[in-house]
Structure to design on (931 residues):
């Protein structure tokens, strides 16, 4: 099956999806707002400060069993034999499953087969943490004892975890049947490079001949994890009649439904999935991991099964981002014009193909207006967990490399780094390096705002440096289905299918209240289960508020049509003579001067006599997600004796299109910046020579804590997206893109050291400082 | 062999039986229906399971259920008095100091303990006082502001 609903990731066909392009039919209809742009309390807030909100692990069913997964201790090993007989005989064990209990229903769909194999190893364990068996038992102690009774005969195979090692000709093969796609002629020899992709235009070689200055550098970034605080958790219940229910923390319960149904051989309509409150996802909860296993256990035991990952399992066996190796070459004339830009990007995918280098290749130079540009991406298989999306997936690493070189180039030709970027910034009409032509965009505006920002002129202290960098993300629209139901008292239920990851229910209620002309408080936004609405794509690609507000506004317009018809019926006049203003039906024309406006509440109260319930619906593909740009400014203090860095001031400037709930927009800017800072300075997966992950816990994989960070200042720019009725752009992802380079540039400005390896952890910074001292 | 434990939780006398090796967090969540405390790591690194034991904030994943014997336990469920929210709860809402909200119960309990000891903390004291609690969504900015504002309200 190749339909979008079953693909592993919506960005798999990104070139078709990411369509900022030329505006053919702008639908921006509103620029003056009464409710949008205010900052009311979120509707789910009270439950979340009182402990009542129910997350993945906070749900239980009668007769529920505890599920646990046995995982490979080897980076790469053939599974010669699995003996589950002793575990099955243990009192209290109700089901044991292996790959044999999860037959292949994928019908030749390679991406779905890869998901199946990742959920439960089929003959070969491909990374430390790969699931090989699972049990369901009456309690956790019994389940743990059962895992110990499962005997597996492994034949350890050679492994490779490093991106640069994996592309060497004699590297151990992660998949011996893999031949690189995207090269002609088709290779005769298998390799770890799954695919080559290329983007760009112009003549790069000719461009470099025009350059007065060329900077060329290689970079590496280490693998990081989304680090959501809530581990994956679900409760699965499958009946012998082939129906099932799944309660799960996910960014996209409809996609989880489609994937799980296919992997289990169930009808999509017979699996009902409910998304719990979600304790962070950042892309990591867009893929199924243990959920199909929980369903398989439940099916075999004929009892509900609760399966929660430990933190160790989250690190070892969910989906971190790619580790990368990137070469950048950029040339400019002395007047500051970039004449050619070239990038080669190698991104790890884990054991299965993903389009991670491709996304890096698409985003690398997206901030700039370039005549000659080429980017080449290589998807590299390694014996690490399957790479998953992490907030603007692949863009931060590409931006780290590009924005570092851009800064260096500016300084080499004697230009201020902001002015150099302004001179080369993409604008409306620019042909993006990844293909499309931009509509109205905000990169120039964020740079101008940075130039004027007081932060840029503030004095620096001892051992402190200031850096800046830009970032880009496509944003995404996708399939969206939304209902509005008007109650007999005139209150409004807005039912959406996009999971609320950080306050979107407030933003969506604001948009619908705006459109209907009713108070925010009278609109209740619910996230429906999969049995209630048509398919919705996941909350990813910064699409939650963009797409569901678009569908919500359209559904509200649909409801307004019904409300006008009902008012016309009540007045016994023609519907053409009824308009909708400020939450009221009004009769137009002097002959109706005696008809007082009817409120939504009055029309709703009469609904039983005018045609029944009043509702509005919308089913769309929310095309036209406006691209997003940001500029960040970072002040970094480095202790020259230890190499420890501290962020002392940080500013995010980003285009939101229209900030529906500005407080939550600020929150997205701040949260993304904080994740980027952690990535820049501390976070990395550390593998031993044995191919095992050495730091699968929050003690050794250190994400920023409160005392690591300063306040994070934000400036919201609003350059309306013409493809959304209110001008909204996605805001969630771009903020993680610039920090790596902004911080590296700050270190370079302070100490004259060019950091080319992320994270810039104390040992690496110290080494660089000492090398600079010697030189 | 399960052990019978008598304790006080949010002012109520509570009896439960638990295994000697069972964490207090599991007792609260699985035996007593108090799922406000969350398990983010199970190793005391994230603070999502923070509760107060005799006025001291602890990770309930690192305390055994049997250690609750004779103690006073406070959890996020006991923070509001009837329909009246604790100032920290109100200020977390007002300042949008939560996005996903899964770390929020832990932050509230840690912030409460901090403000009981130090009613007028500096920004730095708040940052170090809450350094045992991980939040991956907010970048902490709005959490620090909410705690500052709540401290002001609580000082009167």
């Amino acid at each position: 099956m190749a339909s979008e609903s079953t693909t592993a990731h919506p960005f798999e066909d990104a070139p078709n999806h990411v369509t900022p392009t030329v505006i053919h039919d702008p639908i921006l209809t509103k620029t003056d707002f009464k409710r949008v742009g205010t900052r009311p309390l979120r509707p789910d807030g009270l439950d979340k400060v009182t402990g009542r909100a129910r997350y993945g692990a906070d749900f239980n069913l009668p007769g529920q069993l505890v599920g646990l997964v046995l995982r490979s201790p080897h980076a790469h090993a053939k599974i010669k034999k699995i003996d589950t007989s002793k575990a099955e005989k243990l009192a209290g064990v109700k089901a044991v499953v292996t790959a044999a209990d999860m037959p292949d229903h994928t019908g030749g769909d390679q991406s779905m087969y890869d998901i199946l194999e990742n959920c439960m190893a089929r003959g070969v364990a491909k990374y430390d943490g790969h699931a090989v068996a699972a049990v369901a038992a009456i309690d956790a102690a019994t389940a743990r004892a059962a895992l110990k009774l499962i005997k597996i005969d492994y034949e350890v195979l050679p492994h490779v975890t490093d991106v640069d090692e994996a592309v060497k000709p004699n590297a151990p093969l992660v998949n011996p049947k893999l031949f690189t796609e995207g090269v002609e002629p088709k290779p005769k020899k298998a390799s770890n490079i799954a695919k080559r992709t290329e983007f760009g235009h112009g003549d790069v070689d000719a461009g470099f001949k025009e350059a007065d200055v060329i900077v060329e550098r290689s970079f590496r970034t280490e693998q990081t994890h989304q680090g959501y605080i809530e581990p994956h958790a679900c409760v699965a219940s499958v009946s012998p009649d082939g129906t099932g229910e799944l309660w799960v923390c996910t960014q996209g319960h409809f996609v989880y439904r489609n994937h799980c149904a296919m992997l289990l051989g169930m009808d999509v309509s017979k699996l009902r999935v409910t998304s719990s409150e979600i304790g962070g996802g950042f892309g990591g909860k867009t893929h199924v991991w243990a959920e199909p296993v929980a369903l398989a256990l439940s099916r075999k035991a004929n009892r509900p099964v609760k399966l929660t990952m430990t933190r160790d399992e989250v690190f070892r066996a969910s989906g971190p981002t790619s580790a990368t190796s990137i070469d950048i070459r950029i040339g400019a004339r002395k007047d500051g014009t970039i004449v050619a830009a070239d990038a080669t990007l190698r991104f790890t995918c884990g054991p299965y193909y993903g389009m991670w280098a491709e996304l890096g290749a698409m985003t690398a130079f997206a901030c700039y207006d370039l005549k000659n540009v080429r980017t080449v991406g290589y998807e590299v298989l390694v014996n690490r967990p399957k790479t998953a999306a992490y907030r603007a997936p692949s863009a931060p690493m590409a931006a780290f490399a590009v924005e570092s070189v851009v800064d260096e180039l500016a300084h080499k030709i004697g230009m201020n780094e902001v002015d150099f970027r302004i001179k080369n910034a993409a604008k409306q009409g620019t042909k993006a390096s990844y293909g499309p032509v931009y509509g109205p965009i905000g990169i120039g505006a964020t740079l101008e705002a940075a130039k004027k920002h007081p932060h840029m002129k503030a004095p620096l202290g001892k051992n402190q440096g200031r850096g800046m960098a830009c970032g880009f993300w496509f944003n995404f629209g996708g399939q969206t289905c939304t209902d509005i139901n008007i109650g007999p008292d005139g209150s409004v239920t807005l039912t959406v299918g996009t999971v609320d990851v950080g306050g979107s229910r407030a933003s969506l209620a604001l948009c619908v209240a705006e459109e209907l002309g009713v108070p925010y408080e009278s609109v209740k936004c619910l996230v429906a289960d999969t049995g209630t609405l048509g398919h919705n794509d996941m909350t990813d690609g910064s699409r939650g508020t963009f797409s569901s507000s678009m569908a919500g506004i359209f559904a509200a317009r649909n409801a307004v049509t019904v409300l006008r018809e009902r008012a016309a019926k009540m007045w016994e006049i023609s519907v053409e003579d009824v308009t909708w203003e400020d939450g009221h039906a009004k009769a137009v024309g002097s002959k109706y001067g005696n008809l007082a406006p009817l409120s939504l509440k009055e029309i709703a109260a009469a609904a039983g006599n005018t045609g029944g319930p009043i509702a509005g619906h919308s089913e769309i593909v929310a095309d036209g997600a406006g691209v997003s740009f940001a500029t960040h400014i970072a002040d970094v203090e480095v202790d020259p004796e230890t190499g420890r860095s501290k962020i002392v001031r940080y500013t995010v400037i980003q285009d939101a299109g229209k900030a529906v709930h500005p407080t939550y927009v600020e929150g997205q800017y701040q949260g993304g910046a904080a994740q980027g800072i952690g990535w820049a300075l501390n976070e990395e997966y550390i593998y031993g020579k044995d191919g095992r992950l050495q730091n699968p816990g929050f003690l050794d994989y250190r994400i920023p804590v409160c005392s690591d960070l300063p306040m994070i200042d934000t400036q919201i720019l609003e350059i309306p997206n013409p493809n959304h009725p209110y001008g909204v752009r996605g805001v969630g992802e771009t903020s993680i893109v610039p920090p790596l380079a902004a911080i590296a540039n700050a270190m370079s400005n302070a100490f004259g050291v060019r950091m080319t390896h992320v994270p810039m952890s104390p040992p690496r910074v110290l080494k660089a400082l000492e090398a600079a001292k010697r030189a | 062999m399960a052990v019978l434990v008598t304790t006080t939780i949010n002012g109520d006398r509570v009896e439960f039986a638990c295994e000697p090796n069972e964490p207090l967090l599991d007792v609260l969540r699985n035996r007593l229906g108090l799922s406000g405390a969350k398990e983010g790591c199970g190793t005391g690194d994230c603070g999502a399971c923070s509760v107060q034991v005799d006025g001291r904030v602890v990770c309930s994943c690192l305390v055994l259920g049997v250690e609750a014997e004779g103690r006073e336990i406070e959890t996020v469920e006991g923070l509001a008095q009837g329909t009246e929210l604790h100032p920290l709860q109100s200020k977390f809402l007002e300042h949008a100091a939560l996005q996903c909200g899964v770390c929020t119960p832990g932050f509230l309990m840690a912030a409460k303990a901090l403000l009981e000891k130090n009613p007028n903390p500096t920004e730095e004291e708040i940052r170090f006082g809450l350094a045992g609690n991980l939040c991956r969504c907010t970048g902490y900015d709005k959490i620090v502001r909410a705690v500052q504002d709540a401290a002001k309200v609580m000082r009167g």
